[in-house]
């Protein structure tokens, strides 16, 4: 019997959700995405289309979450009818949202899946714009897209923004409710970044937020291992892939609830305050969350720890009977984090966070074995000037200095490539947080250490002179503190103390680059990162809370 498959995936979810730059539209966009395919969301679009085609029993799914699905059916005509109706429904449901559809067939569901992967329908990957732009047309002032409605408050609004606004209302709060810990409802989450009802509770005058984007590591290799197991047992293909998809979804849900319970709830000053974060995308292996800056790193830590722990438990539970060779003990994440002003555009920050996430994953891949799943890692950046979405530009113009030319041919970069969350790998985020805590100590702040972090903005010759003076003062007045400083910096750079006596930069790499963690410390200081909260998120206390939640 011939099996037929249709694979549907969304493209550039973060950019579509964030294109208007308004938190309200991010909220509505996340609800729209969640209601597309999530079978636990009542009234979801996929179930409605299946019902319209009378295909609830005939079509089976190995994945249906995060706006994506893999559908299988023995009746080719029925599957094509379903596909055509689904593509039309999506274009009306989420105007302007990019997607790809691929189709294939084979003797087994695995063969159909593999062939579908090879035949992406490029026409369906270009979404229909509704309505088409006339030569003279009003446009939405925030997105530049052609307007489809005249809103009483916002004036001309494009179709996508109008849909997002409609789904930002409390009666469409299913997504945020499912990812909330017990006792937390939609009223506990902020809906705007300005003062007023349900606003983000900023700490003091610092109106800084962080956009966190995380993605699963080693997914390609894991899927190849799952395919190999399905090749040996073709009748178990859907069970194998659905078990893995369910593991991903459940791990993300548990991690989101745990991070809120461990980090966000304790930080709430009054019970009437909103939580200092807003989940945006939590589906498949994609995670995007907006968090108040001082709590962002702690949130990312708590989320990653819980995701790893829950995935370790569920992989054993849901895939134990399928004998999948090469399955990792746990799933891990690559994380990109952008610190930004609350008024800066989210769309560009979304692109930058994805870029940072890829760099974090690249570092982890370099240190992992050929078939090993890389450890969880993170890369962050604090925006101090105009927002750009290309981190290479940031590195060249803001974070890199060349030697003085007088026998110094090195290039000095004020940040490290990324940090591992695993304590056994270097450079390690825990060591960076220890260095931040050391340099942020009140006693240290009153002394010459205040001048240390300014070195990263100086030419190497000037920095070298001031750094030597700083070391001498520390040696005379705070010798033990200097020893601790040397210990943390040397661990992060993987070198001995003699290497950092001229400047706090590591040995040169193949490109003559010398890296320093001081720029990262400066970014955390500027964002107001709460090291105490990070310590709790990474402690036994957090692990106990996770066990109770599970």
How would you summarize this macromolecular structure in one to three sentences?
It contains 20 helices and 16 strands. With 550 residues, it is of the alpha+beta class.
Describe the structure in your own words.
The chain is α+β, with helices and mostly antiparallel strands and 550 residues long. The protein is built from 20 helices and 16 strands. It has helices spanning 13-18, 23-37, 45-53, 76-93, 109-117, 159-166, 174-178, 219-232, 237-267, 293-319, 346-367, 391-398, 429-440, 442-445, 449-452, 460-477, 479-493, 518-527, 531-537, 540-549, and strands at 3-11, 60-65, 68-73, 98-106, 120-121, 147-151, 155-158, 208-216, 277-283, 286-292, 333-341, 377-382, 400-402, 411-413, 419-420, 513-515. It has a six-stranded mixed sheet with strand order 9-10-8-11-12-15. Strands 2-3-1-4-5 form a five-stranded antiparallel sheet. Strands 13-14-16 form a three-stranded mixed sheet. Helix 10 (293-319) runs parallel beside helix 19 (531-537). The longest helix is centred in the middle third of the chain and has 31 residues, at 237-267. The protein is globular, with a radius of gyration of 25 Å. The two termini are 42 Å apart. The model has no long low-confidence stretch (mean pLDDT 86).
């Amino acid at each position: 019997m011939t099996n037929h498959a249709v694979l549907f995936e969304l493209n550039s979810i973060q950019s579509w959700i964030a294109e208007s730059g308004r938190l309200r539209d991010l909220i509505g966009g996340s609800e729209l995405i969640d209601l597309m395919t999530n079978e636990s969301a009542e009234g979801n679009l996929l179930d409605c289309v299946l019902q319209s085609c009378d295909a609830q029993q005939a079509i089976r799914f190995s994945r249906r979450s995060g706006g994506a699905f893999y559908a299988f059916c023995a009746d080719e005509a029925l599957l094509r009818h379903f596909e055509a109706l689904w593509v039309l429904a999506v274009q009306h449901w989420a105007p302007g949202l990019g997607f790809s559809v691929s189709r294939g067939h084979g003797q087994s569901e695995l063969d159909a899946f593999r062939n579908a992967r090879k035949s992406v329908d490029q026409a369906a990957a270009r979404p229909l714009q509704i309505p088409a732009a006339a030569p003279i047309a009003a446009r939405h002032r925030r997105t530049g897209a052609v307007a489809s409605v005249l809103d009483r408050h916002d004036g001309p609004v494009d179709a996508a923004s109008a849909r997002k606004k409609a789904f930002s209302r409390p009666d469409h709060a299913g997504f945020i409710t499912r990812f909330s810990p017990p006792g937390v409802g939609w009223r506990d989450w902020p809906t705007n970044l300005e003062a007023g009802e349900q606003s983000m509770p900023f700490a003091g005058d610092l109106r800084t937020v962080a956009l966190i984007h995380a993605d699963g590591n080693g997914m390609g290799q894991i899927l190849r291992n799952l395919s190999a197991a399905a090749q040996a047992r073709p009748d178990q293909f859907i069970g194998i892939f659905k078990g893995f998809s369910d593991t991903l979804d459940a791990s993300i849900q548990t991690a989101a609830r745990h991070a809120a319970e461990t980090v966000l709830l304790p930080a709430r000053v009054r019970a009437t305050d909103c939580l200092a974060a807003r989940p945006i995308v939590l589906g498949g292996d994609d995670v995007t969350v907006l968090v108040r800056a001082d709590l962002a790193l702690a949130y990312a830590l708590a989320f990653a720890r819980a995701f790893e722990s829950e995935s370790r438990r569920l992989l054993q539970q849901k895939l134990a009977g399928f004998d999948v060779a090469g399955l990792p003990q746990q799933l891990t994440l690559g994380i990109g984090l952008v610190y930004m002003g609350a008024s800066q555009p989210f769309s560009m920050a979304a692109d930058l966070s994805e870029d940072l996430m890829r760099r974090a994953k690249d570092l982890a891949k370099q240190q992992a074995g050929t078939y090993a799943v890389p450890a969880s890692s993170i890369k962050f950046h604090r925006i101090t000037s105009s927002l750009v979405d290309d981190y290479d530009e940031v590195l060249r113009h803001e974070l890199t200095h060349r030697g003085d030319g007088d026998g110094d041919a090195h290039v000095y970069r004020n940040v490290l490539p990324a940090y591992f969350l695993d304590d056994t790998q270097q450079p390690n985020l825990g060591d960076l947080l220890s260095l931040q805590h050391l340099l942020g100590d009140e006693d240290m702040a009153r002394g010459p250490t205040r001048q240390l972090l300014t070195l990263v903005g100086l030419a190497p010759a000037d920095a070298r002179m001031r750094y030597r003076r700083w070391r001498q003062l520390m040696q005379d007045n705070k010798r033990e503190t200097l020893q601790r400083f040397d210990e943390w910096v040397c661990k992060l750079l993987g070198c001995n103390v003699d290497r950092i006596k001229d400047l706090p930069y590591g040995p040169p790499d193949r490109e003559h680059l010398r890296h320093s963690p001081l720029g990262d410390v400066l970014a955390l200081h500027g964002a107001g990162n709460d090291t105490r909260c990070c310590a709790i998120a990474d402690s036994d206390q957090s692990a106990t809370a996770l066990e109770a939640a599970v």
